[in-house]
Amino acid sequence: MNRADYERYAHAFNHRDYDTVFDFYAPDAKIQFFGVDLGTREAFKRFYSFLHAHVIETLTIERFAASENLVALEGIIRVEGIRDLTAEALREQGLDQFAPIRKGEVQEMRQYIHYHVANGHFTSVGCAIVPAA
């Protein structure tokens, strides 16, 4: 996995091409974000289809490092509300750990993302978010 590979991944994510994004993961990858298990294509598409019906989410890569078995990056996640995402709607999806966002509201967060890699595919991913400076 190199920077060009990851740029293709980020481009697919930013353009909501969920099948291409999911294809970057190994078949038994552990894809878990903030208590949400996205380890199947269906779960991945269901989560992001719901989220992206309410927000435009984009990743801007600021720092990138990779080896044969690791990708680590720092970037800005920008989330713009295109439709109110209420606490009730989040609760109905079992996503109480996420914050509501109103149409027109913009949130930017610095995200540190850490992927384990085997045979050119992500086998696990972890991330941490801190407020953008």
From TrEMBL:
Residues covered by the SnoaL-like domain: 7-124
InterPro entries the record matches: NTF2-like_dom_sf, SnoaL-like
Gene3D superfamilies: 3.10.450.50
Descriptive protein name: Nuclear transport factor 2 family protein
